[in-house]
Design a protein that fits this description.
The structure holds two protein chains of two kinds.
Chain A: E1 23-25, E2 28-32, E3 36-42, E4 45-47, E5 50-53, E6 59-62, E7 66-73, H1 74-93, H2 102-118, E8 125-133, E9 136-142, E10 148-150, E11 153-155, H3 158-170, H4 177-194, E12 202-208, E13 211-214, H5 227-230
Helix pairs in contact in A: 3-4
Chain B: E1 17-22, E2 26-32, E3 34-37, E4 40-44, E5 63-64, E6 78-84, H1 86-107, H2 113-126, E7 134-141, E8 147-152, E9 158-161, E10 163-167, H3 170-180, E11 195-202, E12 205-212
Antiparallel strand pairs in B: 1-2, 1-10, 2-11, 3-4, 5-6, 6-7, 7-8, 8-9, 11-12
Helix pairs in contact in B: 1-2
The chains are: A alpha+beta, B alpha+beta.
Keywords (chain A): Cytoplasm, Nucleus, Proteasome
Function (chain A): Non-catalytic component of the proteasome.
Organism (chain A): Escallonia herrerae
């Protein structure tokens, strides 16, 4: 059972081939809560500094037990989804009652990212993988060079700097669904204010033992009438 | 095809420190459980082969190379602690674990610690021109039951020593050990991180302990 490798088609002339990302998604945040995993990402994909695409789903279900969220190059994410699709298909074809859980998918993704890094041709993504299987919740991350770990809350990109401190303070075991969503929205709001690649259209996905639900896209309420926003240069004349 | 993105590096330093000390009939190996990138702490390392842990602060990098049969106790001879680039560390652990399993199938016994030491060296040198960015210490009991520690650089040069430390805290720990271990003494380590994982190997088997560390 040979899984197709997209780099198989004999391009051995370019041994070293690093890349620029072209169309990129920004942060993804994931947290464990009482019943499973919650994951949030906005629907934006930037082309350099242009906010080019605004309806990109960056959180997708994988098989029965997992959710994947990606930041970074969107085309690489699409290729990853294709590989995962194939992985799940072959798993289903065994027809043996077993199904790949989030740990297995995370391991597969880690190996895939690490192997591309070894060829100096990385998939330019940071991936969040979460899921529930047999009551066990799992939430992990993989970077484009294959660094991977699991935790109770993870974030990619700017989320690492802006969202994780909030999560470190306010996350606790057995968050209810409502509290989990509130916490994610709090983080996404900060990102919306402070990350220039963020767009105000997000989806929150939930995975529990029962299955996956991805919310309809919606926007966060923002408030721009803070005093600090009114005369932003009052403390530094000449600034902008 | 020209290189397009010079700034991309295939390596990252995820930090961490490991130590091992050999005694007359025991060996102690310890490593911290924090992983970082740049100046940010990122998480705690995912479990080594076999065990599933729920808490944070899981076994960072101590790869229990005798674990595969599911047996504990006398069967386990070597412990590898690694620091450096976590993805390479993990790949190295997997390669060694697979080779150890094959050895067990072929020889119907566990690898001795000196044998594992040689295998680790060869595995590291195999990638001499695109190294595993992993700094390792290997601890265990030799064929006579005496404690042994092997210390490595990233490309596989190694030697057997009485004690060793590798990783970001090594420059702090090594002088301390030099001072304290003119004669054998209890294990005392200055360290930072979430937890310290200490593993003791002796004739009775393997014992694992955790200590909380300063969280800064």
């Amino acid at each position: 059972m040979k899984l197709l490798d997209s780099t198989d088609s004999g391009n051995s002339s370019s041994i070293e081939r690093t890349q620029y990302p072209y169309v990129t998604g920004t942060s993804v945040i994931g947290i464990k809560y009482k019943d499973g995993i919650l994951m949030a990402a906005d629907m934006g994909a930037s082309y350099g500094s242009t906010l080019r695409y605004k309806s990109v789903e960056r959180v997708k279900p994988v098989g029965k037990h997992s959710l994947i969220g990606a930041s970074g190059e969107i085309s690489d994410f699409q290729e990853i989804l294709r590989s995962l699709d194939e992985l799940i298909l072959y798993d289903n074809m065994w027809d043996d009652g077993n199904s790949l859980g989030p740990k297995e998918v995370h391991n597969y993704l880690t190996r895939m990212m690490y192997n591309r890094r070894n060829k100096f041709d990385p998939l330019w993504n940071s991936l969040v993988l979460g899921g529930v299987k047999n009551g066990q919740k799992y939430l992990g991350m993989v970077s484009m060079i294959g660094v991977h770990f699991e935790d109770n809350h993870v974030a990619t990109g700017f989320g690492n700097h802006l969202a994780r401190p909030i999560l470190r303070d306010e996350w606790h075991e057995n968050l209810t669904f409502e509290d989990g969503v509130k916490l994610l929205e709090k983080c996404m709001r900060v990102l919306l204010y402070r990350d220039r690649s963020a767009v105000n259209k997000l989806q929150i996905a939930k995975i529990t033992e029962e299955g996956v639900t991805v919310s309809q896209p919606y926007a966060l309420k923002t408030f721009w009438n803070f005093n600090a926003f009114q005369n932003p240069t009052v403390g530094a004349e000449g600034s902008w | 095809m020209t290189k397009q993105h010079q700034n991309w590096s295939p390596y990252d330093n995820n930090g961490g420190t490991c130590v091992a000390i050999a005694g007359a009939d025991y060996c102690v190996v310890a490593a911290d459980t924090r992983m970082s990138t740049g100046y940010r702490a990122v998480g705690c390392i995912s479990p080594f082969t076999g065990a599933v842990r729920q808490k944070l602060g899981m076994l960072r990098v101590i790869s229990h190379l005798g674990m595969f049969g599911g047996e504990l106790g006398r069967a386990d001879k070597s412990l590898m602690a690694s620091s450096g680039f976590q993805a390479d560390v993990r790949a190295l652990q997997k390669v060694l674990a697979a080779r150890h399993l094959i050895y067990q199938h072929q020889h119907n016994k566990q690898m001795s610690c000196p044998a594992m030491a040689q295998l680790l060296s060869n595995t590291l040198y195999y990638k001499r021109f695109f190294p595993y960015y992993a700094f390792n210490v290997l601890g265990g009991l030799d064929t006579e039951g005496k404690g042994c520690v092997f210390t490595y650089d990233a490309v596989g040069s190694y030697e057997r020593v009485g004690y060793s430390s590798q990783g970001s805290g090594a420059t702090l720990i090594t002088p301390f050990l030099d001072n304290q271990l003119k004669s054998p003494s209890p294990l005392l380590l200055p360290a930072k991180g979430d937890k310290l994982e200490i593993v003791v190997i002796n004739a009775d088997g393997i014992r694992r302990e955790y200590m909380e560390l300063r969280k800064d």
